[in-house]
Amino acid sequence: MRHVDVVIIGAGISGSILALSFPKTFSVLVLDKKQRQDPQSGFKKPCGGLLAPDAQKTLSALGLSIPNHVLASPQMFSVKTVDFVSKKTRHYQRHYVNVDRHRLDLWLMSQVPQHINLEEGCLVTLIEETKENVHITYLKDEQEETVSCAWCIGADGASSMVRKLCDAPKIRQYLAIQEKYSLNDMKPFLGCFFNQNLTDSYAWINIKDDTLEFGAALPLQDSLKRYEAFKKHIKNISIDLSHPLSKEACLVNSPKRLSEIYLGKGRLLLVGEAAGWISPSSLEGMSYAMDSALNLSEAFKSDNPLRSYYLLSRPLKFKIFLKQLKSIVLFTPWIRRLVMMSGMEAVKMKD
Ligand SMILES: Cc1cc2nc3c(=O)[nH]c(=O)nc-3n(C[C@H](O)[C@H](O)[C@H](O)COP(=O)(O)OP(=O)(O)OC[C@H]3O[C@@H](n4cnc5c(N)ncnc54)[C@H](O)[C@@H]3O)c2cc1C
Q1: What is the third-level CATH fold of 2-52+105-171+260-327?
Q2: What pTM, to 2 d.p., does this model score?
Q3: Which site from 7, 75, 108, 119 is most exposed, i.e. has the minimal number of CB atoms within 10 Å?
Q4: DSSP sequence for 188-255
Q5: How confident is the model at residue 43, as a pLDDT?
């Protein structure tokens, strides 16, 4: 059986950043079910593709500049925020870079250096921990292959197999449902919508070139019914959502308590959303995926990577703690209403 020091499962944001920053003294294999040769088929992560300033900062620290083909148009500088229950609307300035998430993933994969073995089109089906190693079985071209490693890193997102194997604490999850529509002659804008009767998270509108995306993060129970109910509210603000071009859905993590962030045990480690690194207030996860990956690669320079990863993660945990406090303001209806009524930090729109 083939043996390597480290297997990273997943080459999304966290897996690719981890691979490109990993200490060169380790032999590393990265497995992902996506394929670069055929970008239109295979797995595409449903995501808003808004790169927050912290993600932009980390990319600059790595000396990475985003090429034009990864950007989506237009670049928008404020978010129209609507509370459907209190019937308040405000615009807030934001500093996101609008990217096409799939193109970002494929471009980041292309930045993984040659000495790292990145295998695409590989679906991991089984992970078994033995006394000395971890055995990973995956399907590639309909053939089953097994590799053994000293460390297995789960960069496999919200539905992480590695997290399940660790018996990690349960993390709060929503079902994110998103549909795409033709933008036609609609004026592009970024939207954020609240309705506490449908979700204690939020819904959004994003524009990607000539496509409008309407999505919502919904409780797992009755999520489809709630999504359709949200669409009716959107219709009332004169946005036609009657002819979707496509629909996608996936789980999204949203740590309610710090104890839901879990970094691993023994030979199994977690990074990115698999560990719970995502903002519970905005569901912004790309900067956390990047920063947790950099912490983990740094941790591998020590004799005890897991312990070192815990220590290096303290500032990021504190950041999540602050976002949990922000969630209380955002998602407590009466506090949100007060903030919106005050007009605090809102953009004064010209007629
Ligand atoms: C609808 C939605 C909108 C979002 N919008 C934003 C946004 O605008 N801005 C932002 O910053 N964040 C956003 N997020 C959060 C962000 O997408 C995630 O936090 C981020 O992608 C996490 O990166 P990751 O690398 O940890 O996991 P992922 O990006 O989920 O990557 C996991 C990788 O693992 C691979 N994989 C999984 N299982 C297997 C397997 N069994 N075998 C092989 N490969 C496997 C997948 O192919 C994938 O490439 C959004 C999330 C959702 C759901």
Answers
A1: FAD/NAD(P)-binding domain (3.50.50)
A2: 0.97
A3: 75
A4: P-EEEEE-TTT-SS-EEEEEETTEEEEEEEE-STTHHHHHHHHHHHHHHTT---SS-SEEEEEEEE--
A5: 81
